[in-house]
Amino acid sequence: MQSPRLSWLLSPLYVAALATGAKSFRDNPVIGSPALNRAGLHVKRVRLANAMVERRRKRLCALISEDDRAAFERDGFILKPNFLPPAEFAAVKRQVLSFRGPARHQFQGDGLTRRIALDSRALRQLPALRSLVESPEWLGLIRYVGSFMLEPLVYIQTIFSQVREAPPDPQTRLHADAFHSSVKAWLFLTDVAAQDGPFIYVPGSHRLTRRRLAWERNASTTAARSSDFQTARGSLRISPQAVRRLGFAAPKIFEVPENTLVVADTLGFHARGVSTRASVRLEIWAYGRRNPFLPWLGLDLAAMPLVKGRAVPLYWSAVDIGEKLHVASNPWRRIGVTGPAAPPDGGG
Ligand SMILES: O=C(O)CCC(=O)C(=O)O
Ligand SMILES: [Fe+2]
């Protein structure tokens, strides 16, 4: 808890943060103010960010096909079964499974997420992955949904479920990642069964309907004090019953074969399904999020000369330094060099 004096000194910064992607209700007394949010501050940010997203997306519509655009408009995600030609997919999978590189992991509840950055150094050893992440189709889908000419952060990601005795993985509750659109993409390298913690998305829930906005207003008045950590930090959780009351369709469960690509706007409600058994989900995972209020499409920091191809290691180092300086802890723990599918215990 900050002293009132420190809060007062920081107040210009808290206000300035309104023009950024800052989303934590708990850490910013302006963003989290129940009175301001009752008066419509949060909803105003949601609507303004969305208007900017729509403007930018319009300018990017040549990046994807008309069918994909229509599917995205309707659902909030684009689903591409058999994304790569079979021989290319086989090469990607083979290269991923035989790769070893510097990895990080994070426990969330009883789940463990392992990430290996596909930075330029890793991609030099992984030619099939390099073709994938540089391909216009992959980049076009991610950039359109992300609403920027962004340079996605790309990883080999492995999700191990039920790896320890702990409360459920918090990602298994339906939520929106932030008050604005951002893009996440999954190219599944293994079949995903319904029991194995599949990705779940509520079709159409990326749209700001009148009822969604009323729900946002209501949620924003209590979020700062929520006992749910992620809600307080700006990823609002919602119950399946509340989703139904907002008039959205039943959640779609991505029980999909390998070589399926899903590119989603995580403003829509989504979750990771509960695993009913210990399981491993292996995927190429991409992420793109920028300040939603920016009027331009480019100038992405991750694409700048000294950063391009190194954004993830630089980011990881920055958060390590932040941790040393006691700014914030870095949940992404270094686990040394390992393979994407090495069992967690033997992988350190
Ligand atoms: O991995 C998943 O299935 C979804 C997790 C999630 O909520 C996210 O990555 O934002
Ligand atoms: Fe999420």
Give a description of the structure.
With 348 residues, the chain is of the alpha+beta class. It has one domain: Jelly Rolls, CATH 2.60.120.620. 34% of the residues lie in helices and 18% in strands. It contains twelve helices and eleven strands. The chain has an eight-stranded antiparallel beta sheet with strand order 1-8-5-10-4-3-2-11. Helix 5 packs across helix 7. The two termini are 36 Å apart. The site of 2-oxoglutaric acid has 8 residues, from strand 9. The site of fe (ii) ion has 4 residues, from loops.
Under the CATH scheme, the architecture is Sandwich
Mean pLDDT: 93
Rg (C-alpha, Å): 20 Å
Count structural domains: 1
Number of H- or I-type helical stretches: 12
The helix/strand class is: alpha+beta
Quickly list its features:
three-stranded antiparallel sheet; Jelly Rolls; 12 helices; 11 strands; single chain; binds 2-oxoglutaric acid; eight-stranded antiparallel sheet; alpha+beta; 348 residues; binds fe (ii) ion
What order do the helices and strands come in, and which of them pair?
Blueprint (H helix, E strand, L loop, with lengths): L3 H13 L17 H5 L2 H19 L6 H10 L1 E4 L5 H13 L2 E8 L2 E7 L2 H5 L2 H8 L1 H11 L6 E9 L21 E6 L10 E3 L8 H11 L8 H4 L7 H6 L6 E2 L7 E5 L4 E3 L6 E10 L22 H14 L8 E6 L10
Antiparallel strand pairs: 1-8, 2-3, 2-11, 3-4, 4-10, 5-8, 5-10, 6-7, 6-9
Helix pairs in contact: 5-7
The site of fe (ii) ion has 4 residues, from loops.
